[in-house]
Amino acid sequence: MRRRSLLAALLVLLAQTVGATVASAALPPPPPAPPDCKTCIGPPPPPTPLPTVAPTLLPSQPSVDVHLAPTHVSRGHAAKVQVQAPQDATVSVAIRYKGTKTYKVFHTKVGASGTAVQAWTIPKNAPLGTAQVKVAVSGTGAPFMLSLIVTR
Q1: What DSSP string describes 88-136?
Q2: Does residue 54 sit in helix, strand or coil?
Q3: Taking the domain 65-151, which CATH number applies?
Q4: d(CA 78, CA 100)
Q5: 37: part of which helix (H) or strand (E)?
Q6: I need a labelling partner for 59 at 20 to 30 A (CA). Which of 43, 93, 97, 150 fits?
Q7: Does residue 66 contact residue 82 with C-beta atoms inside 8 Å?
Q8: In this predicted model, what pLDDT tens digit does every residue of 11-70 receive, in sequence order?
Q9: Do 147 and 97 meet the contact criterion of CB atoms below 8 Å apart?
Q10: What's the CA gap between 95 and 145, in Å, rounded?
């Protein structure tokens, strides 16, 4: 009987030891102690978010289309510039023949159709060669530069 009680006591002790080991294995280990360092102040701070700049919005430019016809023209014949632009835009056409100052300047407005047409006759004494046609449309920025070749 004594043997039984001794065996029972050992079993109880063994069960308590195994139970304590299992219970301690279920808990995570504690974190390591911080180092004894006077210059260490702890973990680094989180990153600082940088402000972002909003995208630059450019005002939309009106759509403009410029055509010169014909591009080769004889003296005494007609040439024309056709401009498609917003209604009521002012159109200026300046023609400069080769070797001369600005020969002719026209001003017109774009009508309700969205089109302005300016036609002119090439002078009979216009110099042969390339004439520069500068078309400026109000509210569109840089002028359009076109070339017109004057032939006999």
Answers
A1: T-EEEEEEE-TTSSEEEEEEEE--TTSEEEEEEEPPTTPPSEEEEEEEE
A2: coil
A3: 2.60.40.1930
A4: 19
A5: none
A6: 93
A7: yes
A8: 777 777 665 555 555 677 787 776 676 676 777 778 888 888 888 887 777 789 999 999
A9: no
A10: 10
Number of residues written out for the chain? 152
Minimum mean pLDDT range among 9-13, 34-38, 95-99, 133-137: 34-38
CA distance 26 to 29: 9
CB 147 within 8 A of CB 131: yes
The strand pair at 102-109 and 115-121 is best described as unpaired
**Cross-strand pairs, 107:** 92
